[in-house]
Amino acid sequence: MKEIVVPDGVTSIGDYAFWGCESLKEIVLPESLTSIAYRAFKGCKSLTEIVVPDGVTSIGYSAFDGCESLKEIVLPESLTSIGESAFDGCESLKEIVLPEGLTSIGESAFRDCKSLKEIVLPDGLTSIGESAFGDCKSLKEIVLPEGLTSIGESAFGDCKSLEKIVLPDGLTSIGGSAFFGCKSLKEIVLPEGLTSIGDWAFAYCTALKEINLPDNLTSIGEDAFADCESLKEIVLPDGLTSIGWSAFSGCESLEKITYSRKIEPRLKEIFGTGWNRLEKIVRDA
Q1: For residue 79, pLDDT beyond 90
Q2: What is the pTM of this model?
Q3: What is the DSSP code (8-state) at residue 263?
Q4: Which helix (H) or strand (E) holds 264?
Q5: Using an 8 Å Cβ cutoff, are 127 and 150 in contact?
Q6: Of the residues 157, 220, 238, 284, which has the fewest C-beta atoms closer than 10 A?
Q7: How many CB atoms lie within 10 A of CB 281?
Q8: Which CATH superfamily includes the segment(s) 117-285?
């Protein structure tokens, strides 16, 4: 089966409906459609493009998972949610336009989309799920919406081509391993409202030379900046109350640190023998 036209009047593509139809190249969906369910097109390895009609509000779990030939998909303005692993492993997908009404992107939704180079996230989006864009190795740029408040664990992990990202003002937390292994990341702007950086959040961002930590930051997780070997200077905010073990381990180029005297004992523990080689600026706050 290489081609199929779903008849008018059909409102839902059910669970597993076309799962594993490896020869399916083209499918035409009816305007009456409102939902695409669990693993509906999973493993349709020959499918190259699809237009999701207006009226569809949700794309279910793993709906297009493993559609490795899918190069283009048109999403409707009616779409509000993209489920977990919905486009996981769509390694030929180079670009996708997300509709303005979208409010949530599930875990691993676009993971391993190796050809995806750029994506603009809509203003209504408030959260990005765990591993949502993990292993998108060609992704160079992403624009995050102002309404975003949280970034899940490993959301952009191993996006090795990502060079720059500006985080929106409303963001309060960055999940563990969120930018782990983003080896091309040279610059990141953190918002003033940020209060916590998770474990391993920026570990192995080997090109990162500087980072400005906001005044409201209270917590830095374990290994948060581990092996950021180009990082030369860091200024820790006065409100910082928790620093995880090995937060700056392997930062071989780090030369200078500015910090509040009250956290000095903790810093000595974290840096160990490397503490003595650093230039220090101490504040009495």
Answers
A1: yes
A2: 0.90
A3: G
A4: helix 264-271
A5: yes
A6: 284
A7: 10
A8: Ribonuclease Inhibitor (3.80.10.10)
